[in-house]
Amino acid sequence: MTYNSKKELGDFLKRKRDATLPEYVGIIVQGVRRTSGLRREEVAELSGVGLSWYTSLEQGRDIQVSQHLLSSILSTLQCSLTEKKYALGLAGYASIKSSQGIRTKLPPSLKFVLDSLELAPSMILDRHWNIILANEIASYVYDSGQDLAYENLIELIFLDKHYQILFSDWQAKAKELLAQFRLTFSKEFKNDDLLNFIESMKTRSDFFKACWDKHEVMNINTLNKLIIHPDLEALSFEFLSFSYMNNIGEELTLFINIPSEENNTIEKLKKHLNN
Q: Which of 207, 239, 245, 195 is nearest to 221 (CA)?
């Protein structure tokens, strides 16, 4: 039997549409409806796409769908992070895979270090910049209930609008991160997963392609960072990074954001923790 990913994606979207109640997305139901879920025209309108195009997508027809439009549809359908990753994968927008089993092989001491940094948003990345572990305050500062669509830092800054709005100039931040990420590429330019990831990013983001083609390289240095948080507003941090080699030879990187006195950052974070 031939596997048809477009039909699989269409079936998935239909199932999610049938399961999404109108009141979940702010629609006031008046009169009798033939279905308890959303209508196709409602999904199309809420997602900012055409009805005929969405109908074709749900029917599994051979049409092109951009990552941006599909992400909008998945948000309308109240998809979880796991469901978003599944659907994006069916559409050909697969993320780079983190090292197999690396999450389960992290020593407890490393998790203890992250958890002890109560006011410092911190995370552990693998060599391809997949987020392996983040502490509680990092999840709040960087996610804050937005259900970010990716677990890779490069995908987040180039593709996820919920992550981009945290920075006053997200494009400048994206250029900086990509210039640092390029050092990874120089060490593993024959790694098929990494090469496929880069090629995928070029098709998913014109801005990524433009930045990648400039071949800019930057070391991961200590620097000051400003985050525009949706609840706490301006937060100031000093960024630090450390390398770590685990017991199976995987190189990991620890990203730590030390809160500063600027913009009352420490006070704001303490107040959040005490709520």
A: 239
Q: What sign for the dihedral angle of Cα 56, 58, 64, 66?
A: positive
Q: Which tokens belong to 79? A: 């998809």
**Mean pLDDT (whole number) for 76-92:** 81
Q: Which residues contact 173 (CB under 8 A, 6 or more apart)?
A: 157, 167
Cα-to-chain-centroid distance, residue 6: 23
Contacts of 109 (CB under 8 A, 6+ apart): none
pLDDT band (50, 70, 90) for residue 100: very low
The helix-helix angle for 170-187 and 192-204 (nearest 10°) equals 160
Phi, psi of 231 (to 5 degrees): -105, -45
Alpha carbon distance 44, 56 (integer Å) = 11
Element (DSSP H or E) covering residue 171: helix 170-187
Give me the helix-helix angle, 40-47 and 51-58, nearest 10°: 120
- pTM greater than the 0.70 cutoff: no
Nearest by Cα to 94 from 128, 50, 121 = 128
CB 159 within 8 A of CB 149: yes
Cα distances (Å, whole numbers) of residue 271 to 57, 155, 264, 274: 46, 31, 11, 5
